[in-house]
UniProtKB/TrEMBL annotation:
Keywords: Hydrolase. It holds the Pfam family 4HBT. Its EC number is 3.1.2.-. This is PaaI family thioesterase. Gene3D superfamilies: Hotdog Thioesterase (3.10.129.10). Residues 51-124 form the Thioesterase domain. One of its GO terms (molecular function) is hydrolase activity.
Amino acid sequence: MTDSDDSINLRSYTDQIPFARHLGFEITKFEGGESELRYTAKPEHLNTFDVTHGGAVMTMLDIAMAAAARSETPEIGVVTIEMKTTFMAPSVGPLIARGSLLHRTATMGFTEAKIYDAQERVCAHATGTFKYVKRRLPTGPASANAMRPPSTD
């Protein structure tokens, strides 16, 4: 796989997701139906109990599952259709999310992900369904293409 602007690989995956960059996610595995992300919450990403905010946890799980779904065919995008999350323990300190593609059809990917703390305790678990979609054309001020979200039809 090349490092061109159109390729998706380990180094470029989270760089293409502005919210993942903002939170500071680092992807360390993106292959064979599996993914791994690392993240340590910043003070502004904590809730009133000083643990990682549930929204950041859910985002990490969502991206881990999407990466697992895309890892076998990175040139095809995915959109989240459904996600169920269970919070099992406080997510504190450095976190690792591991995602897996459980089953794939021509148009759908069925996934799961878990978040582990530094002691390898499971903090959160999610399952998700993703629809495979064609990547959209470049958009923005320098592009002739209008901003259109990918179709989920």
